[in-house]
Amino acid sequence: LHSKKRRKIWIWFAIARATRRVIAFEIGSRGKKTLKRLLVKLSIYKIRLFCTDHWKIYRALIPAEKLLQSQKETCIVESLNCNVSHYLARFSRRSRCYFKSPLMVEFTCYLLFENHLTIC
User: Fold this and answer.
1) Is 21:45 a contact under the CB 8 Å cutoff?
2) What one-character-per-residue DSSP string does 20-59 give?
3) Can you give the pTM of this predicted structure?
């Protein structure tokens, strides 16, 4: 394997359930540092409840009284993942179109979320 294939980039989404819009996202690894950066972006909102899957990092950084971990509550994010892959071929797993730069991934996400994508 090439070293670039080992360094995966993850996109963390925060979606307002009422409006079904992406309110923040963060590019990085699946670790605490990336989630911390996303939580800083979300600190301007008065969030009462975080609905997540069962990834262990959430329990480490989000207070238990504000955290609901359930696969039932992540369908909006799964829908978003499908839409991102649909609109941007470079995010498809088997695609040859990809960005080498995390910065370019971030710019592409900004353009998509600001101009085109509301999750239905």
Assistant:
1) no
2) TEEEEEEEE-SSHHHHHHHHHHHTTS----EEE-S-HHHH
3) 0.75
Q: How buried is residue 41: exposed, middle or buried, by Cβ count under 10 Å (0-12/13-18/19+)?
A: middle
CA-based R_g, the chain, Å: 15
d(CA 90, CA 67): 32
- Of how many residues is the chain composed? 120
* pLDDT digit string, tens, across residues 17-42: 888 888 888 988 889 999 999 999 99
Q: Which residues contact 35 (CB under 8 A, 6 or more apart)?
A: 12, 26, 57, 58, 61
Residue indicated by tokens 């069962």: 54
